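Project standup — Tuesday

K.O.: blocked on the structure for the chain from last sprint. Re-posting the sequence here as requested.
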Amino acid sequence: DVQLQASGGGLVQPGGSLRLSCVASRFIFGSYAMSWFRQAPGKGPEWVSTIDRSGGSTSYADSVKGRSAISRDNAKNTLYLQMNSLKPEDTAMYYCVKGIRLTSTSRGQGTKVTVSS
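H.V.: unblocked you, prediction finished:
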């Protein structure tokens, strides 16, 4: 089974920053595009960002574009999401995902981000 251990979430004030990390295991990390999704309380899942296998190509949802940066370190089997200028509407559980589709088997347990003063 895929293992994706996300961390780095927490409580942050509006305008603040967080760096999420996700350590992957039990699959060949460098062979897959990786993504971040999020789910706010009472809402459905939302795609946030995707990075290709090499890290040379990235894409972002309009809601986070210009405020976030996805990256990866294939030597460390780790995916990152740097989020700046955080807004209350960024409050959600953030999941790292193997590939580009969120399924019950492609995601880890998530890390919670709360943006509040």
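K.O.: great, moving the ticket to review. The CA atoms of residues 58 and 114 lie 25 Å apart. The mean pLDDT is 96.
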